[in-house]
Structure formats: C-alpha cells, structure tokens
Specification:
The chain is an alpha/beta fold. It has helices spanning 36-44, 68-79, 119-123, 125-142, 156-168, 181-185, 187-193, 201-209, 227-243, 257-265, 278-285, 290-301, 306-317; strands spanning 19-20, 26-33, 50-54, 86-90, 145-153, 174-178, 196-199, 247-249, 270-273. Bound molecules: phosphoenolpyruvate and magnesium ion (MG). Its main location: cytoplasm.
Length: 318
C-alpha cells in the first residue's frame, strides 16, 4: 500500500512540501516527468508535485524549432493532469547526451563541455524568450503552479540573468540546476539571485569526477554515494538554510531511498525522481527523525568512497 506520508492529496502547505521525517519535518517528495503519461503516473504515485519537467523530451525528434503555440500545447498536455500541483519546468537542456536537430551547434570535440543547456541561450537568446512565453501561456491554460529552472548553469551571473528573463516573461518563480561544481561552490551567491536550486546529481557527479556519465566503465566514479558529491550537496544544504530558500535534488540519487534520507540530512528540502520510486522513498524518509538522517549523512560524508559511505549510513541508522 502507498505510505500515507506521500499519499497527501490536498494542496501542500508550502511550495514543495509533502513528505515528512519521523519527527515531522516536511520534505518534498516529487516526480520527474517528460510526457503526459509521466504526469499521470506522478499523480497516481501521490507525488507532492513535479521537481523536474524535462521539456527537451517533448521535442527530441523535432527537425525545426517548435512554434510558441506548438510548445504551449505540448507543455499544457503535461501540466494538465498536474493541475494545482507545483511543477518545476526546466528550459531546454539540449546538447551533449540530448542533441536536438534544430539546435546543432556544429562540431564540438567535447559536447558535454560544450554549448548545452542554458549556454544555448547565449547563442540563441530569442529561443529562450519564446520558450518562456510558451511556458507562461501553458501555465495560465492549465492552472498549474509553475516555476522555471535553467539547466547547466555555472555562474551567479548566469543565474541572475535567467531569473530576470523569467520574470520578464511573467514567470515569477525561477531557479537553476546545480550540475557544475563551480555552481555548487557559488551556492550562496546563486541562491541570492534565484528563488530555489535543484541539484542534478547525474551531471554534478560527471563534472566533479571528470567521468562521462554515459560510460558504464566509469559507473563507480558516477556513483551518487561518492562522498565528494555528498560534500557538495552539504555545501548547498548549508546555503539553503542560510538563505531560507529550497534546495532540491532531481538526479538519480533521489530515487535511492536511503540516499534520499541522507540528502535530507544534508539539508535538502525536496527530492524528485521517477514516479515509480516515490512510494519507497517517501516511506523510507518517514522512518527516521531528521537528526538521525543528519547523523547518517555525517557518517557517509566522512568516508573515503561510495561503498564505505553506503555502509556507514546504514550502520548509523541502526
Ligand atoms: C541531472 O543531471 O542530474 C539531471 C537531473 O538532469 P539530466 O539527467 O536531464 O541531465
Ligand atoms: Mg543534467
């Protein structure tokens, strides 16, 4: 059966609140989506909202830039089932592992380090403007509580200029993903510039360990239990506490129930994952008080490697 902790149907009291630790601290237990079917699954799983809507998934096979009206319809189809829930819509994360035919940047020797995510907006500023207009229109069509988030942000200036562009389009809640170590090192300045951040652990691991996330041979380095990755999340959690702003995680790390609790212990306020992982994660988080998750997190980050971190967290939880 679905644990009651995530089966909350009423509107969350605050933006990303739906799960709870054993001592009652709220934790957003949210879904990652990329299609109308994913949105329906998110609602069925009892998600408190959507922490990551990957808009590029709507257009991966599209040869030409979709018109504002086509984008509006595609986004509204995903937002429709989510009416009244908070939804974080990520602007196009094109490039690297998600090339889009209409945004081909030409030959790049290292596409993962190239013009991808928000960097594309530097070369095509009107593309971002048109997407933000389409997102704002789809939000008003559906009544979803939409905020927008930029991928692949490296500096506080990029974060501030994205928030300004979002506000100009009438989207008043803007955040950025933390996927680049430089952005994690600037956690405080970035949080000062935006309303929230969300950690993309898939890319943050890839860039922290200089290990291509697509290469199975490097899976150990991309293990989200790596203490170096968790230390960056800890820095972000502290900055979130200092600024009073939400710090989410929307990478694969959030789908591991014990690791999700450890992330909460590091100061993360919401975790977002495939809908299928929501029941297990929600119920695991509720099994321990926040101070127990903090203890597990401290134990994990003081180890030298991913396997030891996993073991240390389990031992700390008893
Ligand atoms: C991430 O990098 O962790 C993330 C959530 O974004 P994507 O997997 O779409 O790159
Ligand atoms: Mg990413």
């Amino acid at each position: 059966p679905l644990p009651t902790v995530v089966a909350v149907r009423e509107r969350p009291a605050e933006w990303d609140c739906v799960g709870r630790t054993a001592d009652g601290h709220s934790v957003g237990v949210l879904a990652n989506v990329g299609s109308p079917g994913d949105a329906t699954s998110a609602v069925a799983a009892g998600a408190g909202g959507v922490g990551l809507f990957r808009t590029e998934f709507c257009f991966l096979d599209t040869a030409h830039e979709p018109t504002v009206e086509a984008q509006r319809a595609a986004y509204a189809a995903v937002l429709g089932p989510l009416t009244a829930l908070p939804v974080v819509v990520r602007t196009l994360d094109a490039g690297a592992d998600k090339p889009m035919p209409f945004l081909h940047a030409g030959f790049e020797p290292n596409p993962a380090l190239g013009v991808r995510g928000l960097r594309v907006a530097g070369e095509h500023p009107h593309l971002l403007g048109r997407q933000l207009d389409a997102i704002a229109a789809a939000a008003s069509d559906t009544g979803a509580q939409v905020s927008v988030m930029a991928p692949m942000v490296a500096t506080p200036d990029e974060a501030a200029s994205f928030a300004e562009r979002a506000r100009a389009a009438g989207l008043n809640r803007a955040g950025v993903m933390i996927e680049v170590p430089a952005a994690a090192l600037h956690a405080r300045e970035i949080l000062d510039a935006v309303d929230f951040v969300s950690v993309g652990t898939n890319d943050l691991a890839q860039y922290t360990f200089a290990a291509d996330r697509m290469l199975g041979a490097l899976a150990t380095l991309n293990d989200p239990w790596q203490p170096a990755l968790l230390r960056l999340v800890e820095m972000l959690g502290k900055a979130g506490r200092d600024t009073g702003k939400p710090v989410g995680v929307c990478g694969e790390a959030a789908a591991d129930p014990v690791l999700a609790g450890v992330l909460v212990g590091l100061g993360v306020t919401s975790v977002s994952m495939a809908a299928s992982a929501i029941p297990a994660v929600g119920s695991r988080i509720t099994q321990h008080a926040r101070h127990e998750w903090e203890h597990a997190a401290r134990s994990a980050i003081s180890t030298p490697g991913a396997e030891q971190a996993r073991e240390a967290a389990r031992a700390a939880l008893g």
